[in-house]
Amino acid sequence: MILKSELSEKLEGIVKSLRPVKHCVGCEGLDLNIENPKHHPSIELTQACNLNCLFCYSKLKKVKRGIYGDLDKAEAVTISQYGEPLLDLEGVKKAIELGKSYGLRVDLQTNGVLLNEKILKEFKDLGLDLIMISLSSIKGYKSLCGKDFSKRVIENIKLATKYFHTIVRSIYLPGFNEKDLLEIAKLDVDEIMLHNLIVYDKNILNKLNVDKSKLGNVKDLLLMADEMNKVSKANVTIKGCLLVQLKEMDGFILSNIRYDSFSEVPDIKREFKELPF
Question: Is this structure's pTM higher than 0.90?
Fold first, then answer.
């Protein structure tokens, strides 16, 4: 017996239409034949940050400065997954040079607050390939991040698009930021990667006005991405390692499956190596 409904067929269509962002290309997570896939290598510079985002896992796990993963076997390297790398600007420059010396695509992940045109030009000259800037809310930016830099970040996103393939990374907080996400979707960027909220410290739910009943619903994540795509010129999608799994599922499963929204802070699976600088 095949269970079908208007919703299940819509969800199948959404998943079929979604494409992984450029950042995910070359990641083991896109290959379902790999039993324990690892993310791209990353270069971690600092865990310090100029924001205090309620949902951030960085401050909950001690991570040494260094290289995580094998640069010799990678297609890309990310700077960085913990902390705000632009607080160590010279380190970012050296990390870009290191990544390019291995012939890798170099992706920078940042909250965007400290970017400016001079820095972007320097990164371009050094060979940076891609920039990912976090922005999950506009009106609710201060309540999420502790300070209100929303206008500055939006202006810096616009600047970044002049020099790089630019991806906005947004977290979907059901009941909190739907309207903001639709505004973010109108930004003239290359791609937007929408993530489910993962709660690493349940106490943050007391500070977030979110619809807890929708936390982890893959259905709602897909419907939100679809609504954003309707008003966006960008490729609005979800993270590639989740997308490839959803493409294997039918609409009935997509309507009911839930993502684990409560988690311990994950350990980095990749091997550690000291930085040469």
Answer: yes
Closest Cα partner for 110 from 65, 149, 76, 60? 149
Map tokens 């999420």 to a residue. 144
Looking at the chain, how many residues does it have? 277
Structure tokens at 162: 């002049």
pLDDT digits (tens, 9 = 90+) for 54-107: 999 888 889 999 999 999 999 999 999 999 999 999 999 999 999 999 999 999
Binning pLDDT at 50, 70 and 90, where does residue 50 land?
Answer: very high
Distance CA 109, CA 45 (A): 12
Check: CB of residue 141 under 8 Å from CB of residue 112: no
Any domain includes 122: yes
Give the mean pLDDT of the chain.
Answer: 95
Give CA–CA dist 161/170, Å, rounded.
17
Residues 6+ apart with CB under 8 A from 251: 4, 5, 7, 8, 9, 10, 11, 12
Residue 114's domain spans which residues? 6-268
* 210 domain residue, yes or no: yes
| 176 domain-assigned | yes
Report whether 8 contacts 218 (CB < 8 A).
Answer: no
User: Which residue intervals of the chain are DSSP H helices?
Assistant: 6-17, 89-101, 117-126, 141-145, 150-160, 178-184, 218-231, 240-246, 251-256
Number of domains in the chain: 1
